[in-house]
Design goal:
Length: 254
């Protein structure tokens, strides 16, 4: 049985003494469902956030073949990122739905970390379910698990010159050991939170940019669906964050 919110410890504020963050997820819309409100607030404060997506989400719409779907979802992701102040969006071109955890994925993410040299790395729930540490809840997709786990590992790989030495010899990417935290969104075991209030409205607009995806996902009015989902999540986190709507993260210091 999970603990009631009033029996759980309060969430700590997210670290703020950083300038650059790199967000690494599997698909277009992962960040919009997970933490765009926090990202909007961070970019408003002058911090730089870069998005790296493992796929272009090409297997995400049943009515569109992957070759047609990929450019649609890429364009929607770029528009979505711009709403919350993110101008750099990169795609690693792994295959949607069948991402494999392994050295190739770790290498690609480590390379991105070396290119962008962030202090904070953000990813999505890497565990098998969306439930608590003892299991339960909805099953998490293999893509989320693979990318989340590889991102946690790549944060260390990026700082070790003897892991993936070809990143130096072939690409000129020197080690970056400056990652201070990896923050996991969408976790059932959060430790920290970021105030969602200042960025919540823009997070709604950001997720709304994924029009083609949302239209086939729900029969509900798209804006009602998006607003209900995001505000509901933020209000649930508020129970452990002094009553303030917030985005929750599980923070792993490095």
């Amino acid at each position: 049985m999970s603990e009631r919110a009033d029996q759980q410890p309060p969430l700590q504020p997210m670290p703020t003494d950083w300038k650059r963050a790199l967000a690494v997820v599997a698909h277009p819309d992962d960040l919009e469902y997970g933490c765009a409100a926090a990202i909007a607030d961070w970019t408003d404060g002058g911090r730089e956030v870069v998005y790296v997506l493992a796929t272009r989400g090409e297997a995400g719409i049943d009515t569109l073949a992957p070759a047609e779907c990929a450019p649609v979802r890429e364009a929607e992701q770029r528009a979505s990122a711009a709403v919350v102040g993110v101008s750099t969006v990169e795609f690693l071109d792994h295959h949607d739905g069948v991402i494999e955890y392994g050295l190739g994925l770790r290498r690609d993410i480590a390379a991105a970390i070396r290119r962008h040299r962030p202090e904070l790395v953000i990813t999505l729930n890497h565990r098998e379910t969306w439930g608590g540490p003892g299991g339960g809840g909805y099953w998490n997709t293999p893509d989320h698990q693979a990318v989340g786990r590889a991102t946690l590992d790549a944060a260390g790989d990026a700082g070790n010159r003897w892991i993936f030495p070809e990143l130096i010899s072939e690409r000129g990417l020197e080690p970056w050991d400056g990652v201070r935290w990896v923050a996991v969104a969408g976790t059932a075991t959060p430790t920290h939170a970021s105030d969602a209030g200042p960025g919540l409205e823009r997070s709604v607009k950001s997720l709304m940019e994924h029009k083609a995806y949302i239209e086939v996902l729900t029969d509900q009015d798209p804006e009602e669906y998006v607003r209900t989902f995001l505000t509901g999540n933020a209000e649930r986190v508020a129970e452990r964050f002094g009553g303030r709507p917030a985005v929750a993260f599980e923070v792993f210091p490095r």
